[in-house]
Design a protein that fits this description.
The chain has one domain: Aminopeptidase (3-Layer(aba) Sandwich). The protein is built from 5 helices and 7 strands. By secondary structure, the chain is an alpha+beta fold. The termini are far apart. The protein has a 7-stranded mixed beta sheet, with helices on both faces. The longest helix is centred in the middle third of the chain and has 15 residues. 30% of the residues lie in helices and 31% in strands.
Amino acid sequence: MNPHDYEQLLPATEDRLDYIRRLLKEQDLPTDDIEVQQDSLYVYTVDSTRIGVGGLECYEPVALLRSVAIESSKQNEGYGHSLCRQLCKQAAASGVTELYLLTTTADGFFADLGFREIQREDAPSTIQQTSEFRDLCPTTASCMMKQLS
């Protein structure tokens, strides 16, 4: 299946939160602020099948890419890249010019998408003040950023 056919980002409505929580827990990603960040989370579907989740906390002109997870059975098929490209497009359409993230395991994956590692303290203060930066991700997580056009 081509991950570019019939793909959608669906807002994290109440009926989708259990799926988001389950998938993030399975992938060892933080879930503590899911309800608070519900408006920034999405379920990624292909042909109406739930493939993964991702989040985009916008603080224009910057944003935090977070909670990116793909179903284990669908990993290594290009869906993660496709999901991230969709989130980047959405961010750019919202006026975001710089996208930041934290990762403990996926540096290479995000580097393939054009992100580069930076020092945590070089991230804008609005990004540093997010719960993901302050509380949820360990200080050993890599901080990465990407310029959006």
